[in-house]
Design brief:
Length: about 80
């Protein structure tokens, strides 16, 4: 699968990990035609949005886990065992 197809699949699936894999599979930029460079630019714009969204979602999940952990530490009905 070439780099353009990898980006298309990653973007269609909104998969941050696949976006990173597509980025790593890029050929040397000097080999790209002007059209390919523009296509890559467009894919990178969309890929950055997907990676940022995934990172934000991940940090939101971490905050939720920390809140649950704090609740369990302070909840008298939580068995008294600090997590």
């Amino acid at each position: 699968m070439n780099w353009a197809t990898q980006f298309k699949v990653a973007i269609a699936g909104r998969d941050a990990e696949k976006v990173m894999q597509a980025f790593e599979a890029l050929p040397p930029l000097e080999r790209l035609s002007k059209e390919e460079a523009q296509e890559l630019y467009d894919y990178l714009e969309q890929g950055i949005a997907i990676v940022e969204e995934a990172r934000k979602h991940g940090s939101d999940e971490i905050v939720k886990f920390k809140k649950v952990r704090q609740f369990l530490k302070t909840n008298p009905y939580g068995g008294g065992n600090p997590v």
